Amino acid sequence: MATMESRGRANVTELYIEDTAYSRYPGNYWGVDDSWKAERFKKLAKVNIERYHCGRELELDIFGIAPAIANAYRRIMLAEIPTMAFEHVFINNNTSVIQDEMLAHRLGMIPIKVDPTKFDWKPTSAPPESTARNHTIVFELKVKCEQLPDAEPEKSGRREDLYKDYKVFSKHLKWIPLADQAKTHFRGKNAIRPVHQKILIAKLSKNQEIDLRLHAVKGIGRDHAKFSPVATAAYKLMPDIKLKERLVGEQAKRFKDSFSDGVVELIGDEGEAKVVNARIDSGSRNIFRHADLKDKVQYDLIKDHYIFNIESTGAIPAIDIFLQSCDILGSKCETFLKELNLCRSGVNDSSSMIECK
């Protein structure tokens, strides 16, 4: 059980990490009020955006929440935020070396730049070939590898010098608007398209071709990874690295080299070691390999300070992914409270029977 002094920090040692459990729950400590209070939560909980790059990469700090909540945000971002992805592929002709199933799988993993909130969920009863402007996006892929008219095989054997469209890229996917899709929300910079134009789909030889039609629908990562809006969504605890005594010279240099670049700098003529940016340390614990240095550093992890790194696939801006995860978690809490109130009041609704035990 953690002590009162260590309950907010986990101590990193040579062989293991001590006091990892989060203990700020009611009843853990006699005489300590750890009950949840809205005013206390508002005072402690904070979100700071540290870096936001081109809508794709987001680094933010979250303070004052329990690990279960932080992990809930992460899991929701991975699996419960909807996007549009290719679900059905109708192949008219495929003479490439890639089998139909593998080709369809590769196409399904191509992220599509479109706002999923403008679409409804496709009815489960609808057949695969059915389309509607409110729940389906249609693309077409027609590519044939043909010899260039000015090709000179005796001078060059490179396929790019001999053939046209021997590489099939995501840029070859052509959006086919349904009804008034092109006239409503999806014009100009908002036109529906693959996020990246140079994703390699296949390579063709002379006279080989691919001719197919694709239907994209709304889905979530829990059903298939192709619907996940993030390439990665992860967090770590904020490191806190402190020197117990002054280090200079050769010891300071070894101390600096034991951490990630930029964590420690050598200051002054003596080259004194100073911790300048603990947050970027990778947690390698290399410092504990040095017998004369391992007892001269205090390495802690702050339990309620989370560093989130969210990398979007490009289908949805990274900041929107985080905000939607907050909305979804709030919705889950509201649903749970409604069911809890029904259970407490003993009300049995004909559409939702809740058994209380």
Automatic annotation (TrEMBL):
Primary site of residence: nucleus
Positions of the DNA-directed RNA polymerase RpoA/D/Rpb3-type domain: 57-339
Localization terms from the record: Nucleus
GO annotation, biological process: DNA-templated transcription
Record's keyword annotation contains Transferase: no
Gene3D superfamilies reported in the protein's UniProt record: DNA-directed RNA polymerase, insert domain, RNA polymerase, RBP11-like subunit
InterPro entries the record matches: DNA-dir_RNA_pol_insert (IPR011262), DNA-dir_RNA_pol_RpoA/D/Rpb3 (IPR011263), RBP11-like (IPR036603), RNAP_Rpo3/Rpb3/RPAC1 (IPR022842), RNAPI/III_AC40 (IPR033901), RNApol_insert_sf (IPR036643), Rpo3/RPB3_RNA_Pol_subunit (IPR050518)
Alphabetical list of SMART domains matching this protein: RPOLD
NCBIfam families reported in the protein's UniProt record: PRK00783.1
PANTHER family per record: DNA-DIRECTED RNA POLYMERASE, DNA-DIRECTED RNA POLYMERASES I AND III SUBUNIT RPAC1
Family: Belongs to the archaeal Rpo3/eukaryotic RPB3 RNA polymerase subunit family.
Name of the featured protein: DNA-directed RNA polymerases I and III subunit RPAC1
